[in-house]
Automatic annotation (TrEMBL):
Name assigned to this protein: TonB-dependent Receptor Plug domain protein
Gene3D superfamilies (UniProt xref): Carboxypeptidase-like, regulatory domain, TonB-dependent receptor, plug domain
Domain TonB-dependent receptor plug: 123-230
Keyword entries, A-Z: Receptor
GO cellular component, as recorded: cell outer membrane
Stored Pfam families: CarbopepD_reg_2 (PF13715), Plug (PF07715)
A GO biological process held by the record: siderophore transmembrane transport
Molecular function terms, GO-annotated: siderophore uptake transmembrane transporter activity
Listed PROSITE patterns: TONB_DEPENDENT_REC_3
Length: 345
């Protein structure tokens, strides 16, 4: 009985092992090699460099100069075809080994326009070095000055903030660094709707877009004034249709990253007297004054005040609110905006 039971167990284990060995073979049998060509629907020519991915996996391939590709995929998989300027397309394999795809132009991408020196131009035809940022990106950051929103958001643009004073925390803008030893001569030309003016206090909700012209071909029309780059700010306009009301509000907490630790009155007086002594001059502070600074016995005439702790809050509050209304008809369009900024320090 024991031998029969042992034989049955051995047979069961052999069958189980055979099943496990056959499963990978069956899974591999599902994978097939798919070939094909990716072409433009309007030009009927191959698209080089298009990406072919197996949906839901990391398997992918790139088309060659003639738009040909080869990829291994499951017979029930879905292939995703994509390329800049064309609409992304998904195609089910369905066991086919040859799949040719005709990709349509992405008109929305090609019709996007940017503001250049002499008006607007399609992104697809711009050859100069310029970058732009739209209103949706500008209103994301809860900063007091629009100049700080450009930091890290536009390539080639640096924003340097030299003050943290409430209401005066606007940053200096530089395009591709400073082009002069003089700070004023190294700044870019800033135009708001074609008028040269400062834009640090403009509400981001009132700005449609900001274009940064960076190279010589983009700034040539401005002559020497555009040598350090040009910042073109376009404000929002009303649009035809029913009145549209938009309300935005954000709240932020501001805190210094690090405060400089300063010496007290007694240490200052002590070191000052040491300096005078080393210069061969009489001490500035008497022993009585030094003692008064040390003990704090004369807070009126011999104070020892930490002005940073006295004047600054540990955490400062900032709130920013805006409401704007836009609309109009074919003849008259309007855009009305009202904003409120509160900061304390």
């Amino acid at each position: 009985m024991k031998k029969k039971s042992l034989l049955k167990k051995q047979r069961f284990l052999k069958v189980l092992l055979a099943v496990f060995l056959l499963i990978p073979i069956g899974m591999r049998a599902q994978e097939i090699q798919v070939k094909g060509r990716v072409l433009g629907a309007s030009s009927n020519e191959g698209i080089p460099g298009a990406t072919v991915m197996v949906k839901g996996s990391g398997t992918g391939a790139i088309t060659d100069l003639d738009g040909n590709y080869t990829i291994k995929a499951d017979k029930n998989a879905t292939l995703v075809f994509s390329f800049i300027g064309y609409t992304e397309q998904t195609v089910a394999v369905k066991g086919r080994s040859q799949i040719d795809v005709f990709m349509k132009d992405d008109n929305q991408m090609l019709e996007e326009v940017v503001v250049v020196a002499y008006g607007t131009k399609s992104k697809a035809t711009v050859t100069g070095a310029l970058s732009s940022i739209e209103n949706k990106e500008l209103v994301k950051s809860p900063v007091a000055s629009i100049t700080n929103s450009l930091a890290g958001a536009v390539p080639g643009v640096s924003a340097v903030q030299t003050s943290g004073q409430p209401g005066k925390d606007g940053a200096e803008i530089y395009v591709r660094g400073s082009g002069s030893l003089s700070d004023s001569a190294g700044k870019p030309l800033i135009l708001v709707d074609g008028v040269e003016r400062d834009f640090t206090q403009l509400d981001p909700n009132e700005i449609e877009s900001i274009s940064i012209l960076k190279d010589a071909s983009s700034t040539a029309v401005f002559g020497v004034r555009g040598a350090n780059g040009v910042v073109l700010v376009t404000t929002r306009r009303g649009s035809s249709g029913k009145p549209s009301i938009s309300v935005t509000a954000n709240f932020a907490l501001q805190q210094p990253v690090e405060m400089v630790e300063q010496v007290g009155s007694y240490e200052y007086a002590k070191f000052f007297n040491m300096k005078m002594e080393m210069s061969g001059m009489p001490a500035r502070f008497s022993k009585e004054a030094m003692e008064a600074y040390r003990t704090g016995s004369d807070p009126i005439f011999r104070p020892n005040t930490n002005w940073a702790d006295y004047m600054l809050n540990d955490v400062s509050i900032q709130s920013k609110n805006n409401i704007n209304i836009s609309g109009g008809s074919d003849q008259v369009k309007y855009f009305v905006s009202m904003g409120y900024l509160y900061q304390n320090g």
